[in-house]
């Protein structure tokens, strides 16, 4: 539906899980998300007005994207997500491609989706959805760590994964349990943070509207 929000789509994903998952699976998933929300510390995230640290990202098609390059002609909009086969990410990124990317291009901003997953595996999500924006690897989760976004799966989730013979570090290629919490971070041409929204619950993601509004407000501010 044309008027569906990202919240609607992710709500439908959760509703499907309520119908099809076992009570044990649901409890693990819900408990982990609730723990992350309870533990969230906004003071550990980037603060609007502060300078962004230097970083380099590896775009899945081979380019190297550093802070100066990304902000050379306009703001950079970084969308942090988990990995290429994450169900919620496969809803959010195509939704952003339809509803956010065109507006950002019109406003002169560069959109980059960022995950710690290695490029050889991360490229799948860009190719599958024919995403029009950059998708890049945050090597060793440097930027996710610097921005206070990383979490490690709780013991119950780790034990369940081991029992099923799976390990998220094998999926991402990082060899760790660490993943970033979804976030949208805007960095201006002055390399300062302009907009920060972090979602500790990965079934909650930033809607396009607030991002576009922040970009329009930024565009209206005269250069110093």
In short:
The protein is of the alpha+beta class and 224 residues long.
Can you tell me about this structure?
The chain is α+β, with helices and mostly antiparallel strands. It contains ten helices and nine strands. The strands form two sheets. It has a seven-stranded mixed β-sheet. The mean pLDDT is 95.
How far is the N terminus from the C terminus? 43 Å
Mean pLDDT: 95
Task: Give, in spatial order, the strands making up the sheet with the most strands.
Answer: 2-1-5-4-3-8-9
- What is the class in the CATH system? Alpha Beta
Keywords:
224 residues; alpha+beta; Glutaredoxin; globular
How is the topology of this model organized?
Layout: H1 6-20, H2 23-39, E1 56-59, E2 64-66, H3 67-70, E3 76-80, H4 89-99, H5 101-106, E4 110-115, H6 119-129, E5 134-137, H7 142-146, E6 150-152, H8 155-163, H9 168-172, E7 178-180, E8 183-187, E9 193-198, H10 208-219
Parallel strand pairs: 3-4, 4-5
Antiparallel strand pairs: 1-2, 1-5, 3-8, 6-7, 8-9
């Amino acid at each position: 539906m044309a008027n569906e929000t990202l919240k609607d789509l992710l709500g439908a994903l959760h509703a499907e899980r309520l119908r099809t998952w076992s009570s044990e699976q649901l409890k693990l998933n819900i408990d982990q998300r609730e723990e992350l929300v309870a533990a969230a510390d906004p003071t550990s995230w980037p603060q609007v007005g502060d300078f962004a640290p230097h970083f380099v990202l590896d775009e899945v098609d081979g380019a190297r994207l550093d802070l100066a390059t990304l902000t050379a002609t306009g703001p950079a909009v970084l969308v942090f997500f988990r990995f290429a086969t994450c169900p919620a990410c496969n809803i959010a990124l195509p939704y952003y491609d339809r509803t956010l990317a065109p507006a950002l291009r019109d406003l002169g901003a560069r959109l980059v989706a960022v995950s710690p997953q290695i490029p050889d595996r991360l490229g799948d999500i860009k190719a599958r959805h024919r995403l029009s924006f950059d998708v890049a690897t945050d090597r060793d989760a440097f930027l996710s760590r610097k921005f206070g976004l990383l979490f490690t799966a709780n013991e119950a989730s780790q034990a369940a994964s081991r029992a099923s013979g799976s390990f998220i570090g094998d999926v991402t290629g990082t060899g760790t349990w660490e993943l970033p919490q979804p976030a949208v971070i805007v960095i201006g041409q002055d390399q300062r943070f302009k907009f920060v929204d972090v979602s500790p619950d990965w079934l909650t993601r930033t809607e396009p509207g607030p991002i576009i509004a922040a970009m329009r407000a930024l565009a209206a501010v005269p250069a110093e």
